[in-house]
Amino acid sequence: MATLASPTPSIARTPLALYALTAGAFGIGTTEFVIMGLLLQVAADLHVTVAVAGLLISGYALGVFVGAPLLTTATSRMPRKAVLVGLMVIFTIGNLACAMAPGYGWLMAARVVTSLAHGTFFGVGAVVATGMVPAERKASAISTMFTGLTVATLLGVPAGAWLGLHFGWRATFWAVAAIGVIATVIIATLVPATQGARERVTLADEVKVIARPQVLLGLLMTVLGFAGVFTVFTYIQPILTEVTGFAQSTVSPILLIFGIGLIVGNVLGGRLADRKLVPALLGTLLALALVLGFMTFALHNKFAAIVFIGLLGIAAFATVAPLQLRVLHKAEGAGQSLASSFNIAAFNLGNALGAWLGGVVIVHGMGFAALTWVAALVTSTGLLIALWSVRLDRRRAVETLAPPLCVAGQS
């Protein structure tokens, strides 16, 4: 997961190499989310339940959660271009292994291998992107790179779902592997190798930053907020077909609505967070919880379900910028880079937790329709954590101001 806090810069002013990073982001975003449109096909072909197939999202997310901080630290002294190319090679090999997996266990292992490239690619890629442009355009450079994620959700995932429906789920992974080959070649050709590896900050200093209570609370908000989203979105295909009554062929076009919502929410959340971070943080988490809660009643009407799919996309990605900025603000100092990687990992831990929780709900016979209100409760817990964190900030501010006020009262 990543944020777009500012509008994408114009093509004329954007270095071509930035679009090489966007291509990589597009491929990674597609392979992360496309499985959600293939659950029924994968479950039927590999003779597992839909809930078990949903764990393929959890496995990928846990791989990102573990791999992001570890690989970010392990590759900190390597040339950044070499790291990016190597990560795209891992990504491509992983998707080839998914396409050829003979069984569920092999597919899960291949998904985990693929996921290892995810978090570090975005962490290193962001540094490379900002090094290509002047200081006043660094945020726009990062925005351009992360556009690949939203485009993947808007176009890559529906296209992958359509491909899987008509040619089998393995065809989708062959196509994503081809994207990986193309992205690897583009990155190797266009990304400049002029930047050396950054100077390593001591691991002890970085860990101290991560261990700050407010940083940990920020990471917990991210986990719970997106666990709610993925409790529902992991099982969006069976929800739409079995609860709402849509045909399988209509799932891909509906996912386009979700993708458009992601883009709108991404821009909206970034602008709100730039103006006032705390109200944006609390407001977007509240909006997400409300959308998930009211979605429970909308699923039984086709038009209302489509509207709420779009609203879910808006509400989900409107939280991303505030959550990311909250962690970065609380991690000021030497550990910001690692904290940023941890927050990407936290998004994916939330994805894994949500997919697992949704599977538990299904296995215990509560049905697909129950997923939305369970998700609303999870995200509401994240909102409560955010309120607690803000209250701690205000209490600390009062305690800091209290001694001068007492002295003034005595004078």
Automatic annotation (TrEMBL):
It is a multi-pass membrane protein. It holds the Pfam family MFS_1. This is MFS transporter. One of its GO terms (cellular component) is plasma membrane. It comes from Dyella tabacisoli. PROSITE patterns: MFS. The keyword Transmembrane helix applies. The chain crosses the membrane at residues 16-40, 46-71, 83-106, 112-133, 145-165, 171-194, 215-240, 246-265, 277-297, 303-323, 344-364, 370-390. It is found in: Cell membrane. GO terms for molecular function: transmembrane transporter activity. Residues 17-394 form the Major facilitator superfamily (MFS) profile domain.
